[in-house]
Amino acid sequence: MRILVTGGAGYIGAHVVRLLLGRGDDVVVADDLVFGDADRIPGIRVLRVDLASVDAVAPLATCLREERIDAVLHFAARKQVAESVERPAWYFQQNIGGLANLLMAMEEAGVTRLVFSSSAAVYGSVSGATISEDAVTQPVNPYGRTKLVGEQLVHDAGRSFGVSAVSLRYFNVAGSATPELADRATTNLVPMVFQRIDAGLPPQIFGDDFDTPDGTCVRDFVHVLDVAQAHLVAVDSTEAGRGDHEVFNVGTGEGTSVRRMIEKIVEVAGSSLVPEVVERRAGDAGVVVASAGKIRERLGWRATYGLDEIVGSAWEAHTAGRAVPGIASSR
């Protein structure tokens, strides 16, 4: 299969590129390289383009035609919640504008297979033992709303020109396959704790008065390699011109408290730092855990890595990256 991966130089995208190459697919990446890093994907052709630009449709359509692309995996997006609250209109321009430009290019080039990188942020403050795909979607921030509107746009494209699509709602992605593929976005919990440990500062827990066993938030942490594998089975399930749209959660179905996760990170890092509790963050739900039954039953995917492997692989990549010039500082 010939696949275009937008945002393929990013954390999750680069892991997916690695798996696609490993099974023999031909891959082209479209990325503006603002947060992506071309060193993650050596030897891969990169179309450097800002998907949200009004000038993006033509080069994307040309790439799709000339490379004879069969399917698109769309990761390119902005994803910082706080930033989305500060700049909501810009977030819609970036995330929805970029997706709209991609869909127009796909329509022009006659490409009708798509996997869309969505998020559990579409559920908003929904809380519970497990959250299924038919739960109420009420995002509590502009980032989450862009993902929900993105799903709706993908659905409408199926009706309009036959796009066969899958939207994958990620829960808490962590871990790494290799140092160069490490997650270096310090807005995510695991690298955020690493940063505090490196600085000799205690990791922070945002609130310990939730209605959970230890009072801290409970989250579904899933290994990035499991998430990457979900994209392969998702794209394989699409069929050109079919005009359907499926939505799947991508998680383990098991919850881990933030306190337990931080203690595991501190343990793996060999640190003696003791986490400190600070005020809750606005909008944090007590329990956010995926119901992963639908993707298991329909696509045969299930998470295979546990907490030890997630934290261990992330710390190994982090410590290796600190020793390699350029890796620790790039994003």
Q: What keywords describe this structure?
A:
single chain; about 325 residues; alpha/beta; Rossmann fold; UDP-galactose 4-epimerase, domain 1; 2 domains; seven-stranded parallel beta sheet; four-stranded mixed beta sheet; about 40% helix
The CATH architecture name of the largest domain reads: 3-Layer(aba) Sandwich
- At the first level of CATH, the class of the largest domain is Alpha Beta
Radius of gyration, in Å, reads 19 Å
Q: Strand order, biggest sheet?
A: 3-2-1-4-5-7-12
**Shape by Cα distribution:** globular
CATH superfamily of the largest domain: NAD(P)-binding Rossmann-like Domain
Would you tell me the structural class of the helices and strands?
alpha/beta
Number of E strands: 15
Order of helices and strands: EHEEHEHHEEHEEHEEEHEEHEEHH
Q: What is the fold-level CATH name, i.e. the topology of the largest domain?
A: Rossmann fold
* Helix amount: 25-40%
How would you describe this protein?
With 331 residues, the chain is α/β, with parallel strands linked by helices. It folds into two domains: 2-123 and 136-171 and 223-250, NAD(P)-binding Rossmann-like Domain (Rossmann fold, 3-Layer(aba) Sandwich), CATH 3.40.50.720; 174-220 and 253-322, UDP-galactose 4-epimerase, domain 1, CATH 3.90.25.10. Helices cover 39% and strands 19% of the residues. It contains ten helices and 15 strands. It has helices at 11-22, 57-66, 81-86, 88-109, 142-161, 189-198, 224-237, 258-269, 293-299, 307-322; strands at residues 2-6, 26-31, 45-48, 71-74, 113-119, 128-131, 164-170, 172-174, 204-206, 218-219, 221-223, 245-250, 256-257, 276-278, 287-290. The strands form four sheets. Strands 3-2-1-4-5-7-12 form a seven-stranded parallel β-sheet, with helices on both faces. Helix 1 crosses helix 7 and helix 6 crosses helix 8 (258-269). The radius of gyration is 19 Å and the shape is globular.
